[in-house]
Every structure is written in structure tokens, then in C-alpha cells.
Amino acid sequence: MKIAILPGDGIGPEVTEQARRVLDVLSLPGLTLFEGDVGGIAYKRHGHPLPQETLDMARAADAVLFGAVGDPECDDLPREHRPEQAILGLRSELGLFANLRPAAGYPGLEDMSSLKPEVARGIDLLVVRELNGDVYFGDKGERDSDGGREGWDAMSYNEAEVRRIAHTGFLAAQKRRKRLTSVDKANVLETSRIWRETVIEVAAEYPDVELDHMYVDNAAMQMVRSPGQFDVILTGNLFGDILSDQASACVGSIGLLASASLGERQTEYGTFGLYEPIHGSAPDIAGQGKANPIAAILSLAMLLRHSLGRETEAGRIERAVSTVVASDVRGADLGGTASTGEIGDAVLRALN
Amino acid sequence: MKIAILPGDGIGPEVTEQARRVLDVLSLPGLTLFEGDVGGIAYKRHGHPLPQETLDMARAADAVLFGAVGDPECDDLPREHRPEQAILGLRSELGLFANLRPAAGYPGLEDMSSLKPEVARGIDLLVVRELNGDVYFGDKGERDSDGGREGWDAMSYNEAEVRRIAHTGFLAAQKRRKRLTSVDKANVLETSRIWRETVIEVAAEYPDVELDHMYVDNAAMQMVRSPGQFDVILTGNLFGDILSDQASACVGSIGLLASASLGERQTEYGTFGLYEPIHGSAPDIAGQGKANPIAAILSLAMLLRHSLGRETEAGRIERAVSTVVASDVRGADLGGTASTGEIGDAVLRALN
Ligand SMILES: CC(C)[C@H](C(=O)O)[C@@H](O)C(=O)O
Ligand SMILES: CC(C)[C@H](C(=O)O)[C@@H](O)C(=O)O
């Protein structure tokens, strides 16, 4: 079993370090760890945010544990050298087409949300976002027009792309509350029309899952009004980017939320994937021991479950995290004073 | 002065009727009203959701007072005959490029929001949404691909389009708290890169307005976490669709929110525009006297201000509405029992 660890920028290294301590304690037999540079730090050391060496390392692994990328010192670089390109490059090069972002309130933490506690308490949803298509990876460029310089981007989805992610969504719904809301803008976009028709077609294979459709503007509204109505939200790359961040904000405690990006490749133990906290590189607090490592630790749990078939260990980690979150060991993000390392210590103690 | 009234579908007619009563009481000299069919009702009567006659009537007017379109009985029609096409058609045919959607909490109604009252209380923002471009009005269609049928839509903005709406945004910010947040996805889209560069260029003409830029995913997050940070949000058609609905939901009392869609044409008295409540046709409560007419009445106030230069009357209506909202005359949407007509009566009484 091989895990590539890519700590990246900002608070990435310090939160990933705590996840690695957890991994060490589990002492899984036959596990080899590799570590590579990615993002701003990779650009500074190797001239590219996603060096070939890092990409090769990720490809050779069964799973990637990712920290965060983003570095204000790189803001003025041309787009292809900016840290974010590393994550876009990994998604397309590794074929990571399915982004799973669970968002659920932790009992006792409802108050961290800006939503009323009774609303926040009800949130328990999973955003399944397509990650290899849409306007993200279509042709794009600049051209002259009557109105001066014009920027353009091509948006599209074909049936095969939608089918693939729809199956991911329906399978996930079967393991949850069996409700799937497909979000699109089919009243305006042809891309969405194909999306909707294909989702309806795939739904026939999952008669036990209740499907509904929502326009993205309405979904953004409902996510504020009554987020508890959602179970699985299935959507495209662009709408998923927006709605999954909105969902995280609704939960409130963003330092606790993890994500998985899965590919098609099956490893010996599960599905190849990349795992990362929802929070970014947070350069303003980097290196100060203020970051909450829980999201990184929960990313490791997702990695063990989906890519290494280690459900038992994933469950152990998640229970340990629940214990810590319910205790008074809280980071600055949750109004407490515990440092990154102290939160890591507490999770290690709670592992059993 | 000519106003075209297009009540449309669902609760559109009943809320528009109350706005019309307010207009009658103001008895503006030299005002002529026209009324036309639009949406599902127009399709049923004339075979098209936006009949030529309605379009001509709107064109000949100084302003359009619009109710709502949307009718479940039309859901299975081909897209070009669906009620929503009427509003898209009006926007493009009338050159309505600037959508202004103010969202502010009413004192005493903070509790209607699913956000905590202390968060909801802080909301006082204006979304300035571009309405004639973006992926809404680009080429689109279906083609064959390796992955089966593929839906595609072309997204673009050119400098002239961005400049025009940016001026609207900066001018609005100058009359408010002088802060403008431009929302884009410039880390992924070329359309957004031109958007951002052009907004920066236009900003030079408004040195008194503080400009910042936010990615749309972050904006959706910030809108939940601390919506009070926003003054004017300037954004494109697609992101504006999502964020303005999200902002309305944050305020909570959607039956109170109005919008203006302004064109380039100057009338004798102001700027040509179309005015409509944010809420849709709400077919489930249509014809039952349960709809809140305040959004329609506030749409009329915006019409008087922007298109007819009647600031005095606009202010009178807005003060009357504030009085009613602060009173115990509340519709079902705000937990009260007042009917559409009773709320209209109360506004008429409060006019002075
Ligand atoms: C950094 C950016 C390109 C990326 C995206 O838009 O996908 C990020 O927002 C995310 O959601 O992982
Ligand atoms: C009905 C629909 C086409 C429209 C839009 O997407 O613009 C609506 O959501 C709006 O915001 O007015």
C-alpha cells in the first residue's frame, strides 16, 4: 500500500503532519509513504506548481493525502504557474472525476454556524460534484470582438460523463437516506438539459432512490432556508464548486470538513483517490499552530475507507474525532485555545 | 408617461393588482396604463409566452411592471414555449442589461431568516447582475461526441459588456456605502479574467469606491458566514442568478423583495426598465389571497424612481411599506393572517 503525501502551502504541512501521526499510530502493515511538493512551494523549488516528479509519485500511489495549495506570494504569476493549477492538474491528470464533500453538523457545534441552531442541526448532506468536465476543462481563450477583447469558455457535458458521476451519486444515496437532488440550470443551459435527461435515465437503475431536480438558483436558496431537506446533491463541476462551499459555510465549522476526489482506477484495496480538507491554505495563520487538523485527519479516514479498504481504521479515527470534538479541546476556529498539535494529541489519545 | 403592466402567471395577477391600486391612489398626471399577457397565460391564449403584441407594448412604454411567470401546466412544453422564455426574451429584446436586486433585512423581521438574528440584521446589500450576456445568451446546442450526445453552451464577456455593467455597479456603490465586491471565477475562467481586468480598469474612474474581488465559491460561503460585509456585489449573469437568490434567502422574507432590470434607453423621465418581485409565480398558493403583495408594491416604487423620475412618490410608497411591515398586518409568509388585499389596504392607508 502506497500513500503519496502532498502537504502543499500555508497550513497544509502542519495539518497534514497531524494526520500522519495518526497514520503512524495505526501502523498498517506493508504501508509505504512518499512525500512530494505541490503548489506555491513546488513552484518556488522546482519552477512548477505540479512538478512531473510529484505527478508520477501520485500516479504510482494507491491514494494521495493532500494538504492545501495557495500562496499570496504567487498571486501575480501567470495563471499556469499559480498554485491552484496544481489541484486542477491533479484532477485531470489522475482522472479524479468524483468529488465527495460530506457536510454535517457536529452535535454541540451547531452554534458555530451563522444559521440558527435548529436549522444547522438538521444538516447532513453529501455533495457529489463532477470534477473532470464542465466549463472547467473546456476550450477557453481570448479573442477580439466588436466589444473589444472577449474572454470565452466552452461549457459541455456528454452522456458518458454524466452517467459516470450519476452512478457515484446514486450509489452514495443508497448508502445514506436514499434521496438524490440533481442540481442544474436546465431552463437555460443545453449542458444542463443533457445532464438532466441522463440523470433521469440512470435513475431507472436505482428504483430505491428518490430523485428530484432543482435549478441551481433555487438550490442556493434552499441551502440557506432549509438545508436539512438535502441528502445527496448531485451536480456539475461549476455548480458543485459553489454549492459545496456554501454547504460548508452552513455547517459553520469548516476546519472539520474533509473531501474525497475519486478516480476510475481500482487499486488492489479500493478506488484510487485524493483526499483533502475543505479549508484552504489559510496563509494568514500558517506556521502559528492555530490551524485545526481535524479536517486533515478526517481526510485520512476517508482515504483509508475508499482507497485502502480499511473501514475499521476509518471508523476508529472518526469515533476518536467525535470524542475530541465533543470535549473541551477546541481550536481557535471553534472559540477554543488548543493548538494544532494539542488537537492532534487529543485525537491520538482518543483512538482505541 | 406609459407603463405596461404584465401580470403573468400564478400569484402575478393578484400581487400586481395591489401595486396598481397604489398607483391609482397616487393619480400621477398624464399616466397611461397598458396591460398585456405574458408567460403561461400568454402561451395558452396566443400560442407564445411572449407574444409580439406584448413585446411591442413593452417597447412603447417608459417602464414595465411585471408580475411573475411560471405555470406547472407548461412544464412539458418544448423550451421555447415555456413561460421562463418570456422573461429571457424581454431581457434580450429590450436590452435590459442591468439587474438590480437589493436585499436588506427589515427591522423586526430578522427572525424570518434562517440565519441568526444578529447575522440577518446586518444584511444591506445590492446585487448588480449583468443580464444580457454570459452563458445565458451565447450559442448553445447538442452535438454527437465520443461520449454520446453532448450538450454545450458558450460562455463569454467582452470589455464593452463588462464596462457597461461595471459603471452601473460603481454608480450604485457611490450612492451607498461606497464598497463594491466584484465576483468572478478568474482562477478558472477566461471570461472571468476579462471581467476582472475590465472592472479594475473602470474602477479608476471611481476612486471613492473601494473595490475588492472574490471568487464565486468564496462569495457563496461569505454570504452565509457574514453577509453584512457586502455593500454592492457586481457579477455576471450566471453567478448573479445564484448569488442574488442566495442573498434573498438570507434576508428571509422573500415576499418583500423587489428588483429592477434596466436598459440603456433613456426615457423622457429616466431609464427604461422592467420591475418585478423576486418571488416567482408560486402556483401552489395562486388565487387564494395568500400572496404578499409588498414585493410587487416595492417594484412599483423602484419603477417610479428609476424610470419615471418620481423619487417623491417612490419614497412615499417605501415609507408606507415600512410602516405596514412594522405593524401587525402580516401575511402568511411572515407568520400572520392578513390576505393579499388586506396588506394592500394597509399600504394604502399608510400612504401619506
Ligand atoms: C482552487 C479552485 C480552482 C478550486 C475549484 O474551483 O475547483 C477550488 O475552489 C475547489 O473547490 O477545490
Ligand atoms: C427563470 C430563469 C430563466 C431566470 C434566470 O435564470 O435568470 C430566473 O431564475 C431569474 O433569476 O430571473
Short note summarizing the structure:
Two copies of one chain form a homodimer. The first copy, chain A, folds into two domains: 1-100 and 257-352, 3-Layer(aba) Sandwich (Isopropylmalate Dehydrogenase), CATH 3.40.718.10; 110-252, Isopropylmalate Dehydrogenase.
Report on the architecture of this protein:
The structure is a homodimer of 352-residue chains. Chain A folds into two domains: 1-100 and 257-352, Isopropylmalate Dehydrogenase (3-Layer(aba) Sandwich); 110-252, Isopropylmalate Dehydrogenase (3-Layer(aba) Sandwich). In chain A, α1 (12-26) links the parallel β1 (2-8) and β2. Chain A is α/β, with parallel strands linked by helices and 352 residues long. In chain A, α1 (12-26) runs parallel beside α12 (340-350) and α6 crosses α7 (190-203). Chain A contains twelve helices and twelve strands. In chain A, the strands form two sheets. The first copy, chain A, has a ten-stranded mixed β-sheet with strand order 2-1-3-12-11-4-5-10-8-9, sandwiched between helices. Chains A and B meet through β6, β7, α6, α7 and α8 of A and β6, β7, α6, α7 and α8 of B. β7 of chain A pairs antiparallel with β7 of chain B, so a sheet runs across the interface. One 3-isopropylmalic acid sits between chains B (84, 87-88, 241) and A (187-188, 217).
